[in-house]
Amino acid sequence: MFVGRERELSKLNKMYQGGCFEFAVVYGRRRVGKTTLIQEFMKDKQGYYYMSVEGAKKENLAGLSRTFLSNRDSLQGNFEFRDYESMLAHIDTLAKRKDRLIVAIDEYPYLAASYPDSRRDSLRTFCFL
Length: 129
Prior knowledge:
There is one protein chain. This protein is mainly alpha-helical. The protein has helices at 6-17, 34-42, 57-69, 84-97, 108-113, 120-127, and strands at residues 47-51, 102-106. It has a two-stranded parallel sheet with strand order 1-2.
């Protein structure tokens, strides 16, 4: 059951219906319903949801690859991103083909931590364009 986040859900829907790029950060204490809010927002929209894992880059790249493979108009076959740059390039390609595109990355700090320090700026740049 979805209760108590109507204001936040309304804000996300308003952003989604706007005519330009939007970037939302949902943050707060653990166990307050952030993931449920994101899932409720996405349930009737086309998009990609990935729950990052605490671990190595390879595990997150494999998970992201499965996420994009789960949608029939995305990647085909037995595909796995070789690095974060190829994942970001794929998202860029999808964004150019679609009217509205949602990419939700839950537990983002885990994903960022698995990215090499020397190249982390490009991952940050992607998130704040």
